[in-house]
Design a protein that fits this description.
The complex is a heterodimer of chains A (116) and B (111). Chain A has strands spanning 4-7, 10-13, 18-25, 31-37, 44-50, 53-57, 64-70, 73-79, 87-94, 106-107, 111-115. By secondary structure, chain A is mainly beta. Chain A starts with a strand and ends with a strand. The chains are: A mainly beta (116), B mainly beta (111). The A-B interface holds A 1, 31, 41-43, 45, 48, 50, 55-56, 90, 92, 94, 96, 101-110 and B 4, 31, 33, 35, 41-45, 48, 50, 88, 92, 96-104.
Chain lengths: 116, 111
Amino acid sequence: ETGVTQTPRHLVMGMTNKKSLKCEQHLGHNAMYWYKQSAKKPLELMFVYNFKEQTENNSVPSRFSPECPNSSHLFLHLHTLQPEDSALYLCASSQLRGDTNPDTQYFGPGTRLTVL
Amino acid sequence: ELKVEQNPLFLSMQEGKNYTIYCNYSTTSDRLYWYRQDPGKSLESLFVLLSNGAVKQEGRLMASLDTKARLSTLHITAAVHDLSATYFCAPKETSGSRLTFGEGTQLTVNP
């Protein structure tokens, strides 16, 4: 799990708090992703960054704000969340058009978020 | 929009038995991935299938892809307890890098 790291691993926050999730990939990849995994639901893609540019925003509410300062780091800024936002947030990275395991996404351990 | 259907969603099997998990998807895809997730853990890549008729094997797991039927299978041979996990298929849309994940198949292998 050292290829993609996420911090914090667990986060409890109130609805009025502002917090940030951090993801770092050590694989030299050029694409990064945020996913939400809720109980009894398929993995939901939230955001995609290719070469630091956001290429997809999958109709995510504005209370989630991504930031990708460089190809190794990805943040998810959270503010005024709702209890239904409680979930496991997974970060992934991939090498676009790579020669080996092309586009395979490698996942971090996730941040377990609880919104009270 | 690519839709993915896995079945079964829950599978309880005895050690030593064989079984197949099915993954159907709705539109054209140029490759398909299988992932494993242990409880409380992240997703681990198992296989990437790049073309029609592709077959890959690792230990007791074998994955195949039929792009014409829009179907992938994950076959488990002589199951062991260590295979207990949730398995996800994820076809990739032809354009872009987006993967669409199935709901997952929760596999429990009983002694």
